[in-house]
TrEMBL record, chains A, B:
Its EC number is 6.3.4.19. Residues 385-457 form the Lysidine-tRNA(Ile) synthetase C-terminal domain. It is found in: Cytoplasm. Ligates lysine onto the cytidine present at position 34 of the AUA codon-specific tRNA(Ile) that contains the anticodon CAU, in an ATP-dependent manner. Cytidine is converted to lysidine, thus changing the amino acid specificity of the tRNA from methionine to isoleucine. Transmembrane segments: none annotated. The N-terminal region contains the highly conserved SGGXDS motif, predicted to be a P-loop motif involved in ATP binding. It holds the Pfam family TilS_C. It catalyses: cytidine(34) in tRNA(Ile2) + L-lysine + ATP = lysidine(34) in tRNA(Ile2) + AMP + diphosphate + H(+). ATP binds at residues 30-35. It comes from the Bacteria. The gene is tilS. Belongs to the tRNA(Ile)-lysidine synthase family. This is tRNA(Ile)-lysidine synthase.
Length: 464, 464
């Protein structure tokens, strides 16, 4: 009987159109159980689908002498099977620090760079990597916990561009059993047993606990859920693309969504179109959250002329029959802006990110001094909390007796140039300036012994 | 300033169209933090939206004297606010046993029955219950772990029929803080602190660990994911309904999916249509898995006449231009069936569920005697493992020396009536009968000292 594991992987390869005869396939082999299994199974697959294999090992330099032994182990295995072997050595930790990335993230980038080098050298057309069903479930859960849309909840894809993952249909336990059955040696990566990485906490603590105490089949169920979500995401993408091509166009420097073609589709598709628009305009979704997308969607039902400020000096405005997305022009940047605040919440104003949160004030709590994070007595603030720039009639309370000063006089006393005054964000309670951001707060709203609820306001994460 | 929590709930109520002026609202109050908070916030909401509140308490009888105290506590609170109060007492544990349900499930059913009684008594039109954001995240995770489609991953809905959940926008921590701030007393339900229920393990162990070690905002992220999935599920439902009404019809006793109208839609929608078809035909999706749906989908590309056997004597067949779903006719039940088996996997054959799994044989492992679970030496089985009924030429090995006997002779010896012989499922390796289900297995495939891999076959969960 054809061997069960090989059969299962072969079926998965065919179903997902991973390999064709005469493919030249790079196999990433760390020496660990997963990748050793992958290489050995691909050698079996080769008997059915004629392919050429190239073994690539990336020495990460984070395991010292063990790293060296891993590399030698893989080289020996490649030699034994008479396969081309390429080894790359990088100091991932140093590279990560240099690029301001996590070691895991940096490792991933370096790995694919090395693959790319070998791909060019031998004119390969596929790269096989050893992710398994557990990796998929872990990725799905990890993304769920740290916040993600449907795409992230889809887990790891079997095929992405020229990268294939034939072992995604197999559980880690099956891999280990199969290797033991066939007396195939592999190297044990100690880093997997350490709780260095957040993902390892998921792998070593959360999932085993869930499998033992909540549902034995949890791994298979998470894997299945990620597949269903992937299918759905793919469908949504298709439907979005159909509408996108009809209603989105580039006009001058901006993206334009034409409302007549847009208005009749479902909100889910509308949001996807807006997301795609921003993505293509600023080459990615940097700093864009679901809340921004929701805000832009509200423009559809709003009057002409209204606009919303987004991160990275982006702006969305409602035209007569369209929504216009683009970078703010200099003129627009100087235009009067005003936002009504409801705490808690995050608001974008004049390119700054304001975060409003509410806290219980605990007696004798020390209020730190910080120029970009301020604490106010929430109960003293009226119903009209706004962010705006200066207006006639603005004033501050400047001493504990309630003495007021006109904002204009304050600016003059502080020798703030006239041109600059319009670019200072103000947090106001009607004409009472709670906070002239970067300058001072009004005495009236300071925390006192009677304070019960605190409004905390942080600008750009509070970094000075 | 209007109070923050009340404001937030009010906004959520308006956004989700939960309450209208003059609504008569039943409030389920257990006496715990969540429901006490709900009642008190609804009393505040009443100042903005004029509604009438009716307090209902269900005494579950699982906490003994504490249950009695809970009821008295809630009655006193209702009296204090001059609200109608109704109390129901049930012995949930006994009812659960009687109905073969879990206590949590039974509790839920009883709760909604009590609400229904009060609804009729006072002609109420809404029922408010106290689920919060944590409950939603817990439900989503719980469903993810135990296996679920998009609907289950959507978590708890803010509005379902006449049931509203105004606190779904609030975290448990906020509820507790708010109650403390307002000096509102509540009862502590000890059962929540015990690890009696699987869900409590999620609540008390998994989520706190994840929040502490993986992502502080995990709760909000899971909540957000469930909302995105809900939106998507809703969209899929709409799209499915549009196509469903065009391609599905009832014909005689069967459901018919017309292929010309069905063929062009996306697979995701096709699967949803098939699912809906089965759901409406057998009033629910009892025993139907994703695998069955996938199988029916393959019929679309198959020849006329081919059919698939489903649980509960359901069947799907390919007609010339249609897929026909219906209960098997008696004639169909007697028709020759045959399934090629690939282990591991589950197959439905003649109304039985066969589960095939592979195990490593450990020396000296004891093989239990069980009429509906059998273990075979996997490596002795050829390439043609099938489930079918009797054929000419069938035989068994009946002793350890390899002596064979014709299946027909075996049936005669065992005094199995002629009419019955065609209804016995046979597991075969060509003409060699591995197992005549319910009768005997062939000596050839028995586990021996040389066995390496075991094929385990279980019929209907192995229950005798």
């Amino acid at each position: 009987m054809v061997e069960y594991m090989v059969n299962k992987v072969l079926k998965y390869i065919v179903e997902n159109r991973m390999l064709l005869p005469n493919d030249k396939v790079i196999v990433g082999v760390s020496g660990g159980a997963d990748s050793v299994c992958l290489l050995n199974i691909l050698l079996e697959v080769k008997k059915t689908i004629p392919i050429t294999l190239y073994v690539v090992h990336i020495e990460h330099g984070i395991r010292g002498i063990e790293s060296e032994k891993d590399a030698e182990f893989v080289e020996k295995m490649a030699l034994q099977y008479k396969l081309v072997f390429r080894r790359f050595s990088y100091d991932v930790a140093t590279e990560a620090k240099k690029n301001g990335l996590g070691t895991e993230e940096m490792g991933r980038i370096i790995r694919y760079q090395a693959f790319e080098n070998v791909r060019k050298e031998f004119d390969c057309n596929k790269i096989a990597v050893a992710h398994n069903k557990n990796d998929n479930a872990e990725t799905m859960l990890f993304n769920l916990f740290r916040g993600s849309g449907l795409k992230g909840l889809s887990g790891i894809l079997p095929v992405r561009f020229n990268i294939i993952r034939p072992l995604l249909c197999i559980e880690r336990k099956e891999i280990e059993t199969w290797l033991a059955e066939h007396n195939i040696a592999y190297r044990t990566d100690q880093t997997n047993f350490e709780e260095d990485y957040t993902r390892n906490r998921l792998r070593l603590n959360v999932l085993p606990y869930v499998q033992k105490n909540i549902n034995k089949q949890a791994l298979a169920h998470i894997d299945q859920a990620s597949r269903i979500i992937y299918e759905t995401w793919e469908y949504l993408e298709e439907e979005t693309d159909k509408v996108y091509s009809k209603c989105v166009l580039r006009k001058d420097e901006n993206m334009v969504i034409r409302i007549p073609e847009f208005i009749h589709v479902s909100d889910v598709i509308k949001k996807n179109i807006i997301r795609k628009c921003l993505e293509s305009y600023q080459k990615g979704l940097k700093d864009i959250t679901n809340k921004h997308i929701d805000c832009i969607l509200t423009l559809v039902n709003n009057h002409t002329g209204k606009s919303i400020h987004l991160p990275n000096t982006l702006q969305a405005s409602r035209g007569y029959n369209e929504i216009i997305i683009g970078f703010k022009s200099k003129a627009l940047l100087l235009e009067k802006e005003e936002i009504l605040i409801q705490a808690p919440g995050s608001y974008l104003f004049m390119g700054y990110k304001f975060e409003f949160s509410l806290e219980q004030y605990e007696k004798n709590q020390i209020i730190p001094e910080n120029i970009y994070t301020k604490w106010f007595d929430y109960d003293k603030i009226g119903n009209d909390l706004r962010l705006r720039t200066k207006e006639a009639g603005d004033y501050l309370v400047v001493n504990s007796c309630g003495g007021t000063k006109k904002l204009k006089s304050y600016f003059i006393d502080e020798k703030i140039e006239k041109e600059k005054r319009d670019s200072i964000p103000l947090l106001c309670d009607n004409n009472h300036i709670i906070w002239a951001v970067g300058y001072r707060i009004s005495e009236k709203y300071k925390i006192s012994l009677d304070t019960k609820k605190v409004l905390k306001v942080q600008v750009n994460g509070g970094k000075e």
